[in-house]
Amino acid sequence: MIDAHASLAEVRERLEELTGRPGRLSEELDVAALSYRTGVPVASVVALLAGESVPATTLSERVRQRLDFVRDTRRRPDGKRHSLDELARIAGTSRQWLSEWRTSGLPSLEHADRIRRHFDLPAGFFTADDAEALLAALQPVLQEYEAKADPLAALRTPAFYRLARRAPHMSPRKLQALAEWAEMITERQTGDEGSILVGNVHVNVHGHHDIVV
After folding, report:
1. What is the pTM (predicted TM-score) of this model?
2. CA distance to 76, 91, 107, 126, per residue, from 97 (Å)
């Protein structure tokens, strides 16, 4: 079983290294967005980012808190909270059952998953403890920072290594063709989404092309 607290500590330390903000990650990262995504209160996000502990909660307490969090943060188009009747319809159950869920903190996995998917919540939103939830939310954040720190990281894959090992056995002509191909597929003109620049021609992914003067 993965120790979420130990894994979170490793991610936090790596982020501190990449951002140059040891002990001050909450000043660098979007704490409100992390809270919104995970259902973890802002104060707990700040504490966990600082390497501090947060009060332990039971499963039933987390389920109730996260359900209320959804009602507070995922509002209707008119800005009002969803009623229990509306949430019950989303879950595909009755208001009585939803009320019992809030009281007992023990949801049906099927009904909870319907609410989760309706509001585009991450897997385990209602049941993960604070450290587990924040760890999952920080993984893509860490990947973004590592990509910025090392732009070539995405190219260090087994396929590219195999290609590199073949390079000494390729003729100069083939190496030149390979270099031109790589440059062609990676070069994009700023502001031209969905197209690549080949010579002086924009080739659209939909098959259209325009001459660049």
Report:
1. 0.70
2. 22, 10, 9, 16
